[in-house]
């Protein structure tokens, strides 16, 4: 009998999950139990960002969180950002700027950057912010704020271009 | 990962009761789960403390009381912290990644374990992981290791950033145990290895951290300077936290702390005092750095840290006091 009954609201849909084993990470719950394979597993140790999802609106590494710890939470994955026929502005910008090569890190980059733009709107500082109390968007800020997402293909320059364009289109400067 | 029993606590009391019964707290999970995947940590029971309500930041005697579950990202972005304790914001923001800081908690950050590679590798001798087995870092790859307060049993560092700032800011840790609450100055929270490197800090079995308190702001100039192998998302080789007050051209108060040079953030009253009464100058900063680094000892690959720590501290002091040290004698 399943010991852990949990409910997650994923991309707007409520999903119930019965887990026999508390060891299942949020990442494995998504990929193995719910067949949502958009979120990728890179390192499984919090070092690469491929597994980035939003939990209650905040970007986190889903590989370093247990699914049982998220009972009742709202989760956004890359599948929730846009559709092939209806891309989010950031997804479109990644296409326009070639913000990837193999594409493996891309779901994590997209979720992370989507949340990053919100963090800047909320005036969250970063370590490169000259003034901690007034934050603005520069390429240095984008690079620092995206440092939790590694890209083995090193598409970094184009990723920064794509994020800058999408952020500016949203009025974030 | 080894199997475990998972329970969730809905109050600090429930968490403490579970801890007393042998359960291990899990907060953000960003360090504990990593170590459990490596089977370096193998708790039988986890108590999830995320819903204990210990996630508030409150005013307290002109300072702040920061709940154990306050996320690193929230603490760094908190208005009062940015304004009155920018050192704390900057130290937190210099650590890990945005994703990790969104999960990582105040208590979990203090409790994070060393990044010594042998500690992570079950095939290596490591007294911290497996007491009595030896220490492969002593004559091994020890580039990241400690230069102060080491013992023949362990030369690991405490790797975190936030605690380095907290030591410079004279914070205290609030702890709950079977016999009630106690408060420990943060400078006395982490332990030097001695012959018990398995014990990172003074938290006893069955105790949990309730929060951290900050005394009222000093009004000094605060700088956190972190040196690392890459510009972001890397642990410190060395870091320096300084909080200095200059009045009428003289230093009237100084708090200097070095990170990643020992098993605890490294501060000494003597080094702080070296600066008090003197004019800010390169010479004065070097004297203070030499005092703080007194007794520093490399182990081969980490010999460079002694000079690096000295220069990092001098540079942080120069930045805090607005002194131009370029070109002066070394
Ligand atoms: C890739 C990577 C890079 C990183 N880089 C940095 C860096 O540059 N600088 C830095 O400072 N840190 C860095 N970190 C470490 C990070 O800061 C810690 O993992 C984090 O702060 C731990 O907090 P947590 O809440 O997730 O703790 P958890 O993983 O939940 O717990 C850690 C420990 O704290 C104990 N604990 C938690 N809450 C309590 C409580 N209330 N009472 C008693 N014990 C408790 C747990 O039992 C466990 O032993 C990095 C981590 C990763 C994965
Ligand atoms: S330095 Fe400490 S943690 Fe590293 S191998 Fe030696 S005993 Fe273990
Ligand atoms: S898979 Fe989670 S950070 Fe790499
Ligand atoms: S596109 Fe290949 S890893 Fe980033």
From TrEMBL, chain A:
UniProt-listed Pfam families: Fer2, Fer2_2
Taxonomic superkingdom: Bacteria
Gene3D superfamilies (UniProt xref): 3.10.20.30, [2Fe-2S]-binding domain
CDD domains recorded: fer2
Domain 2Fe-2S ferredoxin-type stretches: 4-81
UniProt entry keywords in alphabetical sequence: Iron, Metal-binding, Oxidoreductase
Name of protein: 2Fe-2S iron-sulfur cluster-binding protein
Native organism: Paracoccus albicereus
From TrEMBL, chain B:
Domain of life per record: Bacteria
Domain FAD-binding PCMH-type: 1-219
InterPro entries, alphabetized: CO_DH_flav_C, CO_DH_flav_C_dom_sf, Diverse_Substr_Oxidored, FAD-bd_PCMH, FAD-bd_PCMH-like_sf, FAD-bd_PCMH_sub1, FAD-bd_PCMH_sub2, Mopterin_DH_FAD-bd
Keyword terms, alphabetized: FAD, Flavoprotein
Protein name: Xanthine dehydrogenase family protein subunit M
Organism: Paracoccus albicereus
